[in-house]
Write the structure tokens for this entry.
Amino acid sequence: MVHIKRLELSNFKSFGKATQIPLRPGFTVVSGPNGSGKSNILDALLFALGLSGSKGMRAERLPDLVSHSKRNGRARVDTRVTVTFDISDWSDPQEIPESGEWQVTRRLRLNEQGQYSSSYYVNDEPLTRSELHERLYRMRIYPQGYNVVLQGDVTRIITMNARERREIVDELAGVADYDRKIAQARETLEDVREREERCRVVETELIQTRDRAAAERDKAERYRELKSHIQQLQQWEAVLAWRSLQQDEAQLQAQIEAHQRERAQLDERLEALSSEIEQARAQLEDCNARVRDLGEDQQLALTSQLATQQTQQQQLQQRQQELAESAREAETELVQAQQALAQHQQALERVQQEQARLENERLVALEAQRDRAQQALEQQRSEADRLAAAAETWLQQHTDLSQRIAKLQQALEPQRNESAQLQERQRQLQAQLDEQTQAREAIQPDWEAAQQEHARLERQAHQWQQQQQALAERLAAARQESETQQQTRDRLRQEWHDKQRQLDRLEATQHARQEAQGTRATQTLLQSALEGICGLVAQLGQVAPSYQLALETAAGGRLGHVVVEDDSVAAAGIELLRQQKAGRATFLPLNKLRPPRSRADAELKQARGFLDYAVNLIEHPPRYRNVFAYVLGDTAVFETLDDARRHLGRNRIVTLQGELLERSGAISGGSQAQRPLLRLGTDASSDTGESEALKQRLQDIEAVLDECERTLQAHSEEIERLERDRSQAQQQQQACQWQCQQLQQQIQRLSQQRDELDATLSERQRELASVTEQLQALEQSLPEREAELERAQQQLAQLERSHTHQRWQQIQREIAQQQDQLQACERDLQSEREARQEAADRQQRLRDQIQACQQRQQASQQRQQQLQRQRDELAEELSTLEAQIEQTQRELTQLSQQLDGAKQARDRADANLQSLQQRQQQAQWRQQQLDQTLQSQQETLQATQQKRQAREAELPDLLPEGPLPLTPANGSTDSETPAAQLERLQPELRDAQKRLQAMEPVNMLAIEEYERAQQRLQDLSDKRQTLEAERTELLSRIENFTTQRLQAFHEAFDAVNRNFRAIFAQLSDGDGYLQLDDPDEPANGGLNLVAHPQGKPVQRLHAMSGGEKSLTALSFIFALQHYRPSPFYAFDEVDMFLDGANVERLAKMIRQQAQQAQFIVVSLRRPTISAADRTLGVTQARGAHTQVLGITVPASSH
């Protein structure tokens, strides 16, 4: 049985140095105190095999798995976990190494910067995680399976929803593979449909091209006549453009001359303004001089001085606050230093007293005790030295003789017995060899002849067997395919009936809605090709479901009014209804619609239960604002009728339940049998899309059903043929096998006789040779060893008469005891000396701390004195600065009064100067405008001249004569200017060109082009038929995959359900089963665990108690494991929520399952530990690493 043989951990979580944990087949329990690291063993399995991420191993990231003692440092750390599998009896011989072991190692390297790398190895060969999972999959170890069940897995199954639980069975059944195949087939199907659509588009274009080719022959003559007329118009256009440019050139020259005259007048005006500005500037300078003489500069200096003084005052005040804060901090530091000084002085006194006690009492007594032990040891050593010489020689001799005698006795006794037995055996073997040699020679010829005939028949039978197997495989594949096709056909027939009924209901609903969304009149309008119809009011807005009933009630019959762009569309609609006698309809033209004036009541908005005005609760395009204002008016929406009744008569009100309160006082309401089909926000496009989708699906199903019928017929014929061939091959194989069996029995009988004789002969010959050699060896060595033994025994007896060694052994024991006593005294004395030195070091540290506190105290006092001096100096500076500020303010007030009169005169002079400068700027601006206009006109004149010259080059050699070739509708042109004539000519030319372009292209080879188009249409039709067949085949493949997907799921579900029933009955003495929400379409629903514990009603998982949930979830896990078994399983405290009786049942079941797989269970419960084959104890001392101890439980304890 494949199993985990050992687990090696190094620097993994709580495991420090390299730890090796041997594991055996069967049931192993890992137990230990909480926090000792027992669950880390399972995390190591997950880590090494790559079965989980870091969060699944209770870590935020991979570096958190490194041992904490190593992670705290800055050195490189190498974390390694190795899982060794025993695969000596694995069924795949190619994967079994010579050692019979398969090692999986994962290494995690963490460098000094906190970066890490992770790598996998199999038998010391690196590989990727995906490659490792592929190999594990062959060993039936699945990354997404339940090999390792952690503490949270049971809870996760309990808390997950039914759909997630069903997806677990999906994964077991391999549904994802079918989904991937279906997705690939759908992608190919979409590509085929796109190609079909492109073929249809091209076919439409080809049909249009063919029809155009038939009609273009009639257009050719009209095309030539119109082209000649256009050429004549283009000649007249060139002549008229040339004449128009001549006129434009003359007009531009006249405009340039007028602007040049105006430019000269502006130059004279600017010279006069310049002289006036110089006089005004001189006058302004005189006024500024008078202002400066009166002290404006002095005023600015005083203002600057005042600002500087105020800034200095603010800085001094801020500095004063900072000094006060520093003084408070110095006071606090002084108090803290005094307190610390007192504490250190008290500690120093205590340490000095303790040191004096150690020196006076304990140390003296220990030194005296040590000296006494030293003297006693010296005396005993002297006595031992005296006896050593004599005892050493005697002991060596006694030991050598004893060992020699024992060896000789052990060798002699068996040899004496063996010699007699070997002589008798030699005589018997020789007689047996003669008889068996004669019998062996008589069997050989018959055996060779039977062997040759058997080989011939066996080859012939093997050929028939291979042919039969091939036919059986083909037959099984054909039957499986036929069964799949039948299930697909049955499922599609049922789906076709369901879709057809759904389509019938949808069409009936659409028909009823169309009848309800207006009378025959509105339907006639909506289905007509009349432009400008926007739709019914009900189709133009959207409303939240909570407000829909209220707003539909408020709108009433106006939801069926027709909204149009303008009143002309309304008139056309009325005329259409009159012509078709389709009835009457109400139109709402957007250009004329005027909604009633809103009479919003501010008090109503504050009323209890008021939600909003109805018009504000509809979402619609802004252009329909007036439509809904007309339909709903100022209707208010309230929550309940009780809230609305308080405002009856003030407004039109509607409630969320559909009660309507009119302004007149009328109230309507009550029950409603069914909602009206005319609904706000309804649109037929969604229903139409759904209807088209259903029709397309029905067509696809019909095509697939036809393909299924053809395929089933072909499979039926193939199955009949294969069954005939297989039956014939089976008969031939049976005949050959019967003959082979007869020959095989004969060969076996002869081979058995020959092999028995060969084995017996070989064994007898080897035994005879061995017996002979042993006799010869014994005859040579036996006499010498007997004489040697006798001599050694005599020497030992003589040596033992001496007794000098006894006293020496006694003195050696006394010396050892005295040495132990002396070492104990030395250790005690060293401990006291270390304590004394530690006390002295502590005194010195306290003296240093006292000195530091005194220095801090002195520094704080000096700082307080310095801060006080700075505060006094700062107060004096502030007082002086405040007096200076008052003096500066008085001087500034006196000077301001003297300057006011002079400043007014200066302002008048400045205003006059600015007025003159503004007039000068206006004249200069006009001058610039004239310059730009002249430049532009000159450029335009130059461009006009160039255009005229270009037009002259384009004129025809013979200018056209006579009237312009215009249509009679354009009238006479004799008295018009060339520009006017050109303006009348160009629309005629553009219209002719448009008509010419409308006729293009004109194909003169229309018949040939028509034939080519017809041939392309035929080729395209053949291609479309091929694509349709491919599309049908893809649809059939998709449906077959869907059927196989359902088969695989139901097969897995039924097996897991059977396992769950049996396991739950064993664990709980009740019955339970798995239940699908939708058995026909499992993918649309979930999976529920339904259980009936003993003595309780049937319950689903969410209604059970905690223990029952755990038992049910465990039963589900065991059922999954039974469906896809693995060589090992690991559970992490899955029994923690169970009572004692249920723990015993769980342990019993695990013990039963351990006969087929290896179980490693982390548990603290006694029943689980008692049921195990062996127990691993895990412990961890404070601050140390995890340690593991193994205990094997005797079989009798179970």
Notes: The longest strand covers residues 77-86. The domain at 1-145+1133-1141+1155-1198 is CATH 3.40.50.300 (Rossmann fold). The two ends are 23 Å apart (CA to CA). The chain has a mean pLDDT of 78.
